[in-house]
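Entry 12.
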Amino acid sequence: MQTIVNQDELNRREMGGEAGFSLMETAIALVIMTIVGLGGASLFYYAARNTTSASDRTMAMAVAQQKLEQLRNADFSDSSLTATAGTTTTITRGGRQYTCLTSIVNSNVINGAATVKTITVRVTPVSGNETWAQNVTSLFGSVTLVAQRTALTVGPNRSL
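Predicted 3D structure (tokens):
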């Protein structure tokens, strides 16, 4: 009697009866996939954190521009443009708090009256207590805008 054997059966007999993966090979493959998966998860966390930080900087820029525009629209002799070393206020926008430091310096004084004022507005997002809400508040977390205002008066070296 002759038996018919298919090709898979012949290959299995030639390899000593081994077929499929061993438990050790499966465990090693699982460890490698876990390491790759954890790398991807940390990359996702890093991207989400930077997106939040970028959103804070964008809103800080909007707050700084709004504050600077308020000061630029004020009359040059207005009390809001009095020279100060720095005034700190807390502003809430989009459910987030921002610290706004405004300083005004009389840059050019002629005959006791300022003709140029330098306005500096620095806005920094206030970090929350949660670890995901913390951000870098030095270089990357704050926005600083500087503008100069000049008086509409004619200086002493010019004539009409």
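Annotation: Residues 21-150 form a domain with the Pantoate--beta-alanine Ligase; Chain: A,domain 2 fold (CATH 3.30.1300.30). Confidence is low (pLDDT under 50) at residues 130-138.
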